[in-house]
Amino acid sequence: MVRYRVRGGNVLRGTAFIQGAKNAVLPMIGAALLASEGRTVLRNVPAIEDVRRATELAEAIGAKVQFHESERTLVIDASRLTSPVLPAEIARRFRGSVLFVPALLHRLGEAVIEGVGGCNLGSRNLDFHYNGYKRLGAIVNEDDSVIHIKAAGLTGAPLYLDTPSHTGTENLVMAAALASGTTVIENAALEPEVLDVIHMLTRMGARIRGAGTGFLTVEGVNELTAVEHTVMPDRLDAGVFMIAAALTGGSVNLVGGSLEHLGVARWKLEQMGVAFEDEGAVLQVSRAEPIRPINVITDTYPGFATDLQNPLMTLACLAGGTSYIHERIFDGRFALAGELNKMGANISVAENRAVVHGPAKLRGTRVTAHDLRSGIALVLAGLVAEGETTIDTGYLIDRGHADLAPRMQALGADVEREISPSE
Ligand SMILES: CC(=O)N[C@H]1[C@@H](OP(=O)(O)OP(=O)(O)OC[C@H]2O[C@@H](n3ccc(=O)[nH]c3=O)[C@H](O)[C@@H]2O)O[C@H](CO)[C@@H](O)[C@@H]1O
Ligand SMILES: C=C(OP(=O)(O)O)C(=O)O
């Protein structure tokens, strides 16, 4: 079992190299499976567990995949897909498995979803996805726990998303890209990762207009070709290292961090006292003043990213006053509060609102990661807690952050990753 052990008190200084974006590379692997000839090359791929699971899942349906981890490069040959089944033992380990459905529908005419994983954040429905496939002509059978979708060719149609779903947009764009005729997707997501996926699909030969406007028009084409594409940097990984610098009162140079990918989050961090110095391709982050309390409302991009809500909750624990966090994307994303309270924080939660009373003096103890971002938020808390903090279920952290311990150690943090015999 993977466990992280953090000893607090060190001020972080130095350079952090931001990884490739988890939430861009996973749909890109799904997109690579749409190419019936040649090999796709993805660069700047993060060495995270979700990518390793996605590699295993792609191989389970017949693709040939080589993940050259030290080169951060994935090579995918999807010329022969052999099975429409996304096996539960792999698909249930990560959310990105849902992104393989469009390729299965186009390449094999059917998809059998034995399960979808991902962070435990409440309902996490997929009805927008299924409704979209039906409107494109697929037959979706949701009768039992295994979802069967059949499609003898998809036909363009007017689609909509009730809310601008991140993977919902990516899946419906991929489904429409090879459908016959024109598809319009209303209320499409604007996240930078979604735009990067659309950029890759366009380079593959897809005909997509309106990226970043909320209205996407997709003219179906007959085939998509394999390309080489470099994955954008991970803005959530960058946000974690920004907050690490702010928490410890240090100064960190981010290679690969970009402020415009953060949207409102950049301004909220500045409101709390975080200072940014844009030095060309390097972004310097520091905190020159005491941490101020904040009022944060999570939203779709460019609103405050829900994936940074937990790391920000940790920062708010040190603020000189009361902070208010309103989580508007997921209906169960406050598991972190109970763990931080074990460390001496004073956080109260009522439905989708949390109130963080600061400043709190955090003390190291044994805590549990309930999901990827609560896990990384606990590592951040350990950086400023008195004594030692151990974080169990560290696999959840490794789902989304590559080489976390070495990258933190390079900044002077006392962070160790341990493999303990499963208890
Ligand atoms: C692999 C990946 O890219 N994961 C990201 C993706 O997740 P994911 O794509 O699952 O998140 P969505 O944007 O779809 O979901 C947001 C909300 O919409 C609801 N919903 C979504 C789809 C649907 O068909 N029906 C429905 O009701 C969900 O229950 C949730 O409450 O975007 C989230 C929001 O930025 C991020 O936290 C995740 O890191
Ligand atoms: C919710 C997240 O991931 P996933 O959708 O892969 O569970 C996340 O990255 O914070």
TrEMBL record:
GO terms for molecular function: UDP-N-acetylglucosamine 1-carboxyvinyltransferase activity. GO terms for biological process: cell division; cell wall organization; peptidoglycan biosynthetic process; regulation of cell shape; UDP-N-acetylgalactosamine biosynthetic process. It is found in: Cytoplasm. UDP-N-acetyl-alpha-D-glucosamine binds at residues 95, 307, 329. It holds the Pfam family EPSP_synthase. Belongs to the EPSP synthase family. MurA subfamily. This is UDP-N-acetylglucosamine 1-carboxyvinyltransferase. It comes from Acrocarpospora macrocephala.
